[in-house]
Amino acid sequence: MKDYNKRNLYFDNLHNQKDLKWLGQNTNHINSHDYVISEMIQSIKSQEFHYYAPPLGLEELRTLVLNRLGLKNLVSLITDGAVSALYHICKELCSSTEQLITTDPTWAWPIHFAQSTGAEVIQIPIFGKEYNYTLDPDRLKEYISKNTKLLYLVDPNNPLGTCFSKEQILKIVEIAEDNDITIIHDCTYRDFADDHHLIANYYPENTITIWSFSKWLGLAGMRLGTIVTSEKIMEKIAKTFTAHTISVLFYSTVIAEFLNIGDGQTINQKNVFEKNIEYSVDLDQKELWI
User: CB 3.0–4.6 Å: which of 80, 216, 218, 224 could bond 28 by disulfide?
Assistant: First the structure.
């Protein structure tokens, strides 16, 4: 049996264990709000699943995303998951003559996507107390070359959980501006951070913000993500993109969350996660990496 089939059968077996307590995959299993469930049922009864969604996403949700992130002067695109967003960006913006820089560790899939185009991928080590588990802008400078086109930053980092400070971001932006580098800011876990800063607020023309509904809303199985960027970059990305794989049913669910749950649901989830951590880990004896 081929390796790809072995991997799939392994996870399929886990998926079919109905009494399994999921602690991996970084998925959010906190129960959805009753209102959201009722909206899903209503959408099914209305048979909205027959429809294709608009190619860039429903306008209402595109606007709600910008409002939620506070990036109203930029443009958004709804994708079938954050991974799809990253795949499309790497395919459109990477080439065999260019370089993408990221950290080690980072989320691995964009590395594979970039390498599939022939692009060189450079990983800067950040795991260790000597690095404070984050990327020092001065160290970043050492890796920049004339071929560096993209800087991929997962913030909060997956799997370390560390966030960039505002001071770090301003220095990174200065480096990117000086070298005409586009920053991909993957913010999938931003809603669980106590103090998070969007790079797009300081470098709007050349930042691509990636955000997902999988984590903060617990909708991983619905595959919904978003790209937020400038008109200049969106023109390149949107030409060959379509979100037709996303059901209107899924849009209805997320819009219901946005309009009626919002920050209250996020605060509740953070409280639950913090209690779970306190319950399951002796922090005096162990280091916990999320």
Answer: 218
Instruction: Please name which of 154, 141, 139, 94 lies closest in space to residue 120, comparing C-alpha atoms.
Output: 94
DSSP of 131-172: GTTS--HHHHHHH--TTEEEEEEESS-TTT-----HHHHHHH
Domains for the chain: give ranges and CATH numbers. 71-260 (3.40.640.10)
Say if strands 99-104 and 75-79 run parallel, antiparallel, or are unpaired: unpaired
Contact 196, 156 (CB under 8 A): yes
The tokens describing 168, both together, are 């770090």
Tens digits of per-residue pLDDT, 142-172?
Answer: 999 999 999 999 999 988 989 999 999 999 9
- How do beta strands 207-212 and 225-229 pair? antiparallel
Measured between alpha carbons, how far is 61 from 98 in angstroms, rounded to an integer? 34
Q: Judge contact between 68 and 120, C-beta under 8 A.
A: no
pLDDT, tens digit, 9 for 90 and up, residues 11-64: 899 888 888 777 666 777 777 777 778 878 888 888 888 877 788 888 888 898
How distant, in Å, are the alpha carbons of 53, 150, 173, 209, 249 from that of 182? 29, 5, 10, 11, 34
